[in-house]
Write a structure and sequence with these properties.
The structure holds two protein chains of two kinds. Chain A is an alpha/beta fold. Helices cover 25% and strands 29% of the residues of chain A. Chain A has one domain: Rossmann fold (3-Layer(aba) Sandwich). The chains are: A alpha/beta, B alpha/beta. The interface between A and B is medium-sized, with 26 and 31 residues.
Chain lengths: 157, 355
């Protein structure tokens, strides 16, 4: 079975709910890329995941700060946003390499802006417009990512 | 007290010389935008490398314009955070080295405190206490400001900053990035009322903001329209109206809730003319006063850092502390320095308590 999950997201609540499902399969060291245009719901998905993990504070867009750190129940979670990079070398310059590792979960918006330098994904979530809602595609890219997506498919919807 | 200010938190290198007796004596700003134009827009220059190239020549320039030499300086203020670590380190290390060489204190300043206090540099400065609306590409906050370092957060954005909503909508309309000023220009020729966007959290009853949903709303508008020049202008108009409506309503609510009579507007979006005229009208209607920094001091600059640093150094001096600043108080030695890429404004100590 190919480790892919595709779902229609009718509204923001559905995006938050998918984030909550995703939260259940996150584990330290996992890199998740979030791909989709402005307004597709990438930050909303992260908000859904963080709420499900027990984070009660705000989940602000990391566009200007480039990264937000969350320490939730069992995980250190970095929420990156490379939207403002004009050149992938800025990723190196920002000193983010040390933040990617086995200790933390890294959720990355606009990973293509650091293409070739930032670590590739274990799991890729693509959000595209579909009707008045969104189509979310969750793919396992590495073996570890495939196992996560398999657990995501098996878990409650 | 003569203070050199160094701002390198993002992609502008700002230097200034401020004197507590004579006011702002000189300032200079280098932005990457201008550099890209000079090179024909082809050099993907990195912020921290650019700061390294610019900071010393700009320091010489402002000292020259102020008619001062490094020997005349009583202190050096630099942006300690928040911002990009590599960019911050340039300003911090230059400030600490120069301070070490001259035997004077270097003091780290919170970038947002610089913005908050920048209206005090205007010809008509507000008196404490006041409500501050800090609104920029990275921040949207309402704060109660009782004095230097005495800040209480009243409300803030739950997701995107107002400036970010401007910038990202500009991207959706094909206006380039950052596009806040482009939206504002375009909005002037837009028709009011052709498009209607939501006013997120307008009636939420608190002082928080949410602007992330506006991107989606604009995206839905853009999909159903042929994007000719007039349509773009009309969408820009609708976006600006939506953001300004919410900012004005929440700022006025904050003034009412605190019972204060003064509102201070700071940050890049504070340069928006529609926001200014709407706030002025609301202030006249409700009986409070609005204060703005001069336009050049709305965006990142060295003057606000020199000014905030000078206030803190002067306060420490008046309390009899020889070395003054936070660096000496917290660091392992008088010339150690640090940067704080992430730094909560509410964690700042009031100036009077530094010693």
């Amino acid at each position: 079975m190919v480790a892919t999950l595709a779902v229609h997201l009718a509204d923001e609540a559905a995006t938050l709910a998918l984030g909550a499902r995703l939260a259940r399969v996150l584990e330290p060291g996992l890199v998740v890329h979030l791909v989709g245009d402005l307004g597709a719901g990438k930050t909303t998905l992260v908000r859904g995941a963080l709420r499900a993990l027990g984070h009660e504070g705000k989940v602000k867009s990391p566009t200007y700060t480039l990264v937000e750190l969350y320490k939730v129940s069992r995980l250190d979670l970095y929420h990156f946003d490379f939207y403002r990079f004009k050149d992938p070398s800025e990723w190196e310059e920002a000193g983010f390499r040390e933040l990617f590792g086995e200790a933390a979960v890294c959720l990355v918006e606009w990973p293509e802006k650091a293409r070739g330098l930032a670590p590739g994904p274990d799991v890729r979530v693509t959000l595209a417009l579909e009707g008045s809602g969104r189509r979310a595609t969750v793919e396992g890219v590495t073996d570890r990512g495939e196992r996560c997506v398999a657990r995501l498919r098996e878990g409650p919807g | 007290m003569l203070v050199l200010g160094i701002e390198t938190s993002c992609d502008e290198t700002g230097l200034a010389v401020y004197d507590t007796e004579r006011g702002l004596l000189a300032r200079a700003l280098h932005s990457q935008v201008a550099m890209h134009e000079a090179y024909g827009g082809v050099v993907p220059e990195l912020a921290s490398r650019d700061h390294i190239r610019r900071v010393v020549p700009l320091a010489r320039r402002v000292l020259g314009e102020a008619g001062a030499s490094p020997a005349d300086l009583d202190g050096i203020a630099y942006t300690e955070g928040p911002g990009l670590a590599g960019a911050l380190l340039v300003g911090a290390s230059v400030a600490a080295s120069l301070a070490y060489a001259r035997g004077i204190p270097a003091i780290g300043v919170h970038h947002l405190e610089g913005h908050l206090l920048s209206p005090l540099l205007a010809a008509r400065p507000p008196a404490f206490p006041f409500v501050a609306l800090l609104v920029s590409g990275g921040h949207t906050q309402l704060m109660r400001v009782a004095g230097v370092g005495r800040y209480r957060l009243l409300g803030e954005t739950l997701d995107d900053a107002a400036g970010e909503a401007f910038d990202k909508t500009a991207q959706l309309l094909g206006l380039g990035y950052p596009g806040g000023p482009a939206i504002a220009r375009l909005a002037e020729s837009g028709a009011e009322g052709r498009f209607r966007l939501p006013r997120p959290m307008h009636a939420s009853g608190d002082l928080d903001f949410s602007f992330s949903g506006l991107k989606t709303a604009v995206r839905d508008l853009v999909r159903g329209e042929i994007l000719d020049a007039q349509t773009k202008a009309d969408i820009a108009r609708a976006l600006q109206s939506a953001i300004v409506d919410v900012l004005v309503a929440k700022a006025a609510a904050a003034v009412r809730a605190t019972g204060l009579a003064r509102l201070v507007v700071a940050g890049g979006v504070g340069a928006n003319r529609h926001l200014r005229s709407r706030l002025d009208a609301e202030a006249a209607r409700c009986g409070f006063e609005v204060f703005y920094p001069e336009l050049e001091l709305c965006t990142d600059n060295g003057a606000m850092i020199a000014f905030a640093g000078a206030l803190r150094l002067a306060s420490a001096r008046d309390r009899g502390s020889a070395t003054g600043g936070a660096v000496a108080a917290e660091g392992p030695g008088p010339h150690a320095f640090t940067v704080r890429p992430r730094w909560d404004l509410a964690a700042l100590a009031p100036a009077a308590e530094l010693a």
